[in-house]
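step=encode ok
step=design start
structure_in=
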């Protein structure tokens, strides 16, 4: 389990509507800062290899497809436990590593648990993922069932209409219930930012979910038209930073959806380091939700060691 024993989980703070209503985001400034991150030369050589290994350790290795089978999930879990070939691990001179977690649908928790056997967290998407439009009772029950089935992390989706209609109380109340239903399992609140229209809504939804006790805030389900982006992530990590300054609680961040290249993973690591500091570069405070990123990281690490690239299909796909 990747949460240090001394780590103090976020706790519900009560909804401060006055604070939420006055939040503003300067879109141009966010875009400029995002562009500067994109244009930055990336870290090189051994530093890059070290950063890529860290990115790998923060991946929530994900499969969320309608045609998922126990077999596919078992292969994904084996890959999560041993994400790098042993010759690469040896050449890098590191101890064996794992991904941060695996992330699956409820029905796939049992096959995942067979392979994972408590070695890394199993995250289950919940609350009628990805649209979140079942009844509240159904969604709370789904969380309870996933926790009972062995999920130690629950990725909930918020009800977007609460944001789009400015009903912050309803968003707060549902998040509070979800957090309670999770019990000891850590809860990631998926904002589905591609549906929220403005960065101001993203900032407000981030704050409301944190005020209601979310352990992590996560950008996207991977199913919206637009998934993780740097301007949205910047808005969310700045909310995390300010929330930490005000309450002392550290909330994690998870960009998800469309993060498929080492280059973009390095941009997210840079964002975390520059906005939140080194402490947030660890799996208990940072995850990348991704289905195919691992393959590219493995290729880049192989290139670092051998000087040449192998075809992506030579690396085992989950
Ligand atoms: O939460 C994770 C996403 O669903 C994965 O999205 P992806 O397939 O674009 O990497």
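sequence_out=
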């Amino acid at each position: 389990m990747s949460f240090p024993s001394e780590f103090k989980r976020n706790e519900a703070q009560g909804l401060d509507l006055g604070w939420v209503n006055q939040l503003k985001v300067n879109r141009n400034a966010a875009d400029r800062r995002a562009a500067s991150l994109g244009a930055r030369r990336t870290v090189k050589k051994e530093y890059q290899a070290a950063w890529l290994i860290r990115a790998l350790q923060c991946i929530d290795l994900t499969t969320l497809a309608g045609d998922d089978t126990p077999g596919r999930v078992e292969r994904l879990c084996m890959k999560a436990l041993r994400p790098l070939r042993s010759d690469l691990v040896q050449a890098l001179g590191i101890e064996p590593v794992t991904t941060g977690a695996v992330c699956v649908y409820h029905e796939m928790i049992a096959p995942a648990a067979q392979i994972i056997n408590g070695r890394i967290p199993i995250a289950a998407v919940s609350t009628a993922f990805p649209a979140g439009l079942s009844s509240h009772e159904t969604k709370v029950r789904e969380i309870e069932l996933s926790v009972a089935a062995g999920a130690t992390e629950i990725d909930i989706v918020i009800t977007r209409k609460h944001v789009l209609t400015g009903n912050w109380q309803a968003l707060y109340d549902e998040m509070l219930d979800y957090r309670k239903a999770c019990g000891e399992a850590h809860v990631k609140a998926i904002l589905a930012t591609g549906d929220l229209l403005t960065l101001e809504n993203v900032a407000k939804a981030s704050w409301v979910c944190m005020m209601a006790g979310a352990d992590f805030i996560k950008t996207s389900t991977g199913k919206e038209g637009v998934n993780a982006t740097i301007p949205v992530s910047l808005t969310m990590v700045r909310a995390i930073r300010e929330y930490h300054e005000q309450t002392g609680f550290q909330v994690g961040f998870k960009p998800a959806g469309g993060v498929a290249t080492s280059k973009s993973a390095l941009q997210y690591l840079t964002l975390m380091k520059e906005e939140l500091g080194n402490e947030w570069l660890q799996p208990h405070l940072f995850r990348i939700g991704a289905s195919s990123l691992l393959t590219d990281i493995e290729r880049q690490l192989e290139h670092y060691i051998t000087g040449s690239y192998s075809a992506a299909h030579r690396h085992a796909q989950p």
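step=design ok
step=annotate ok -> The first helix runs from residue 17 to 21.
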